TrEMBL record:
Protein name from the UniProt record: PadR family transcriptional regulator
Organism per entry: Thermofilum pendens
Pfam families per UniProt: PadR
Limits of the Transcription regulator PadR N-terminal domain: 23-90
InterPro entries found in the cross-reference section: Tscrpt_reg_PadR_N, WH-like_DNA-bd_sf, WH_DNA-bd_sf
Length: 115
């Protein structure tokens, strides 16, 4: 990874639920921007606009965490995590575990764990 990419990686802030969920959705499978916005809106119960998704995708791509390709007859740009992107998401989720542990303590295990 180049010095420029390392500097960009340091500048990435996952400071919103939209950004976190975007990364999780991309870790599941490659997706195009509109699909991400639609899934995020369903997950969060609120409209999600292009300005909430595309600047973050562009930043991730410039940092080398995302790749993209044109797909289908409608030539949609499809985004996918690079190997560095998967490592970034893995580290981020590991750091987020402490928040989940606190949620379990506050809510109680029966409210948090699915059957």
């Amino acid at each position: 990874m180049s010095t420029e990419q390392l500097d960009r990686l340091k500048s990435i802030r996952v400071n919103t639920v939209v950004k976190l969920y975007t990364l999780v959705l991309l870790a599941e499978e490659e997706r195009h921007g509109y699909e991400l916005m639609k899934l995020l809106a369903e997950m969060l119960g609120a409209p999600i606009g292009p300005s909430q998704v595309y600047p973050f995708l562009n930043k991730l791509e410039k940092a080398g965490l995302l790749g993209s390709r044109i797909s289908g007859s409608r030539e949609k740009k499809v985004y996918y995590l690079t190997p560095q992107g998967y490592e970034f998401v893995k580290e981020l989720l590991e750091k987020s575990l402490s928040v989940l542990h606190t949620a379990v303590k506050i809510l109680g295990k029966e409210k948090v764990c699915l059957p």
